[in-house]
């Protein structure tokens, strides 16, 4: 790829990330092109559809989330790693509308998109959940899909990051509800 084409692709990706984060999946290709300072044809040369561009952004975000999960697992015990990752996902989703849309499954199958990349966040979440359950720190009757739905609810409560205290409170209630009962 020529240097100018590579630079344009990076500009498009940067602009798309910012546009999807601030406006969600509904942002237009024209708006992304405008923010990148390129024409819509340039966007289309690199990403033939808006969905392909969105998928590239989401997969990048999934890589960040998966890396964070690995870090939490390496640095903390099972229950704490699970709790920290859940909180991290909520924080990231509350500030990034595009990520929130992907995690909620709003017209985009994040699991299918991430399959085979090593960055399947639901799989990573499931592994952290299983370890926390094996350690007796999370109740055994929930699965990764349940937790993903709870994360989406927490994100919806804190979307836009306007009320961080409410988001933290909601995460605390969810984590309390996930603890095993005597």
Automatic annotation (TrEMBL):
PROSITE patterns cross-referenced by the UniProt entry: HTH_TETR_2
Keywords noted in UniProt: DNA-binding, Transcription, Transcription regulation
Protein name as catalogued: AcrR family transcriptional regulator
Binding region for DNA: 28-47
Pfam families listed in its UniProt record: TetR_C_43, TetR_N
UniProt keyword Thylakoid present: no
A molecular function (GO) term: DNA-binding transcription factor activity
Domain HTH tetR-type: 6-65
InterPro entries: Homeodomain-like_sf (IPR009057), HTH-type_TetR-like_transc_reg (IPR050109), HTH_TetR (IPR001647), Tet_transcr_reg_TetR-rel_C_sf (IPR036271), TetR_SbtR-like_C (IPR049445)
